[in-house]
Amino acid sequence: MPITVQENSAQHKLHRLIGAGAFGAVLVALPFILPEFQVGRLNRAIYLAVAILGLQLVLGYGGLLALGHSAFIGTGAFITTWLVMDQPFFGGDFWEFWMAIPIAMLVCAGAGSLIAVPALRIKGLYLALITIALATVFPGLAKIESFGIAEATGGVNGRELTEKLVPPGWAESLGFSATEPGRYRYFPVVLLAIAAFWVVNNLIKSRPGRSVVAIRDNETGAAVSGVDLTRTKVTNFAVSASLGGLAGGMWAMDKGFVAEQDYGFVLAIDLLVGLVIGGVATVPGAVVGALVVVFIREFTKGLEIPLGFYTIDGGGPLSQAIFGFILVVVTFFAPGGLVWMFRLIKSKFYQVIPEIPELSEPVIPLGQTEPAMVMS
Amino acid sequence: MDLFIQRLFDGLFNGAIYASLALALVTIYRSTGLLNFAQAELATFSAYVGLVLAGGSMGASFGGLAGTGLLDGLPGYPFSVPVAVLLATIFGMVAGALLEVVIFRGLERGSPLALVNVTIGLLIVLSGLTTQFWGGAARIFPQLFPADFDDFVWIGGARLRYTTIGSWATLLVVLVVITLLMNRTKAGLAFRAITSNRESARLMGIPVGRTLMLGWAVAGGLGALAACLTASVVSFSPFTMLGALIYALAAATLGGLDSPKGAIVGGIIVAQAQTMIPGYLGLPTELAVVAAVIVLVVVLLFKPSGLFGTVRVERV
User: Fold this and answer.
1) What ipTM was reported for this prediction?
2) Does A178 touch chain B (CB under 8 A)?
3) Structural domain boundaries enclosing A169
4) Does B299 contact chain A (CB < 8 Å)?
5) CATH number at residue A160
6) How many domains would you assign to chain A?
């Protein structure tokens, strides 16, 4: 028999507190347990999770097959790089990361609203193909020689951000060292990610988020119920793109190196794969998916399976093939994603009885409705 | 004018490649509602198989097969280039049919996103296998048609290369065969019935799985042929067809995802745009692609189902 608890009862609140506390403890402890190179991968997984979260808004909750979010990550990374490296902050010193990233997010939000305009009309796989084209074209755009673009982005060779985020004096006294910057950078990265997840989680549970889901489920029905289709879609795209920009800014801050070829088709595929493996239209799915994309790929690289007649060596191009194989297998056995599968298993052991919501207005008993309210 | 004709001819070869790949995509989309992102990689794999059969120099591990004497027992090995291309096409057909049986039949009721994910997974698997077996470096394949420097005819003051003529001739023959297959055979009739309404077709007793296999085989064969044609003209790497896939996707979108005619027309338009736009506007090649994408977006804004696609009417 599964354990059952009443929603919002003292017991349920205690369970949630324990869960949150354990999660928080793991988050704080992880960078100190893992070796530096693993922390670097973890950072990468975290900002990919933020980007996938952005994609969830449009693709998972909005139901629009927009696959070009890699371009927003790239835009965010390049804008951040350009501000931090080239632009004096109002005649003074160069921009700091914490000032540059919000600007990058704003620019991406603008770009996202631009993409939203054709998406109002172009639907389904047609939209998917256009956005894939966008993802493919983006690296080419970033290395154009004119307008000083290639100079700002580093062109084909990529660009190193010489203004790096290193632990300041007080952090060094806490045990962070400049030779292992990933451990220190983990904390701003994870804090930004928590903020992003908090905002999105609240957003989808409030009016704008519910409008987005309503449009996905039945566009005509949503419009009839008073949802402004254009405004909702454009805003959704803008928020989604700005999360991509945030991920890009975090990327530039953490890696300290940007290169156009990192923000192309392959990244777009990674985002999509992460989203589907994690779980479509789930918030935790973004984290699970990002972890899978980053760590399974590393796992397959280290793999060596002797088959007797042939040794499968993950060091070479075969790691790609194994990764793809895992992808196909996971999609086969958990078509809704890992989070849905986890929820299914969890419900066998632990069930929450939902609270009956209080009604703001008394329900008119059946038979006493006004004639105008009668539905045929 | 001469320059215009020359550019027209230059775009024709790519047009044939994009048209065949787009046609392969459309064939599968029409019958299953699935966009096969693994199409190009399957084609690449088949083309490499063709190279092995033609006795080409291989180098890397699996290519060692050509030197082990394993293939020497085959009657007629090494095959002449046209025979090798034919065998590669058959390989592509068998591989396409196998994919349908082993993977996609079990996923018939999966969500569209899950299906896209599976084809992307296949793309990654096939690209990894191709690189593992034959290495990532570009290599020169044996020529199917004379492709030397002076193999062309003068038409209207412009050079039309034999490879272009040959590719289009091949494509036209294949188109005739496919049209006959679809319109004159029982299997083709069943295929069209499934495309029109799968559930009704199933209730009428049409073997849906087996018929869809036919569609996958046609698509696999078309892709393999396109890859072989490409490989016999340009130096070929495991990633060449992935670039072509992007243009083929654009071509299929432009023409309308469910229209075979649209795939051919779209392929020609996209390839012409690819040569004409940088030629006449003096743009760098990177920007030419952007211009092509903008053209695509504008066309879709006015015709959201592509030029020849079925307009979907939504019932409220």
Assistant:
1) 0.79
2) no
3) 33-279
4) no
5) 1.10.3470
6) 1
